[in-house]
Design goal:
Number of helices: 0
Protein name: Small ribosomal subunit protein uS17
CATH superfamily: Nucleic acid-binding proteins
CATH topology: OB fold (Dihydrolipoamide Acetyltransferase, E2P)
Helix content: under 10%
Function: One of the primary rRNA binding proteins, it binds specifically to the 5'-end of 16S ribosomal RNA.
Strand order of the largest sheet: 1-2-3-5-4
Subunit structure: Part of the 30S ribosomal subunit.
Largest sheet: 5 strands, mixed, barrel
GO cellular component, one term: cytosolic small ribosomal subunit
Order of helices and strands: EEEEE
Organism: Treponema porcinum
Number of domains: 1
CATH architecture: Beta Barrel
Oligomer: single chain
CATH class: Mainly Beta
Structural class: mainly beta
Length: about 90
């Protein structure tokens, strides 16, 4: 007999590049993601900022660093992102 095998394709994990705004917690950082969106009425670009809490296992990132965060399973009430890499250190 033949088995019916169904392959499930996992969706690509979302990732964002943003700036660390807080590193006061242990193994956690707050990353601000800034996007530009066009206003429907006035046809001007509006800057939107959203904050995400991310898991930083080694406490590497500090305030002002540009980092890449990747979506992961829920780690706590507010954390479902983890630090993937530090793109640029703060000066």
């Amino acid at each position: 007999m033949e088995e019916n095998t169904v392959q499930t394709v996992k969706p690509a994990k979302r990732s964002f590049v943003g700036v660390v705004t807080s590193d006061k917690m242990d193994k956690s950082i707050v990353v601000s993601i800034t996007t530009k969106k066009m206003d429907r009425l006035y046809k001007k670009y509006v800057t939107r900022t959203k904050k995400y809490m991310a898991h930083d296992e080694k406490n590497d990132a500090h305030i002002g660093d540009t980092v890449r965060i990747v979506e992961c399973r829920p780690l706590s009430k507010n954390k479902c992102w983890r630090l993937a890499e530090i793109v640029e250190r703060a000066k």
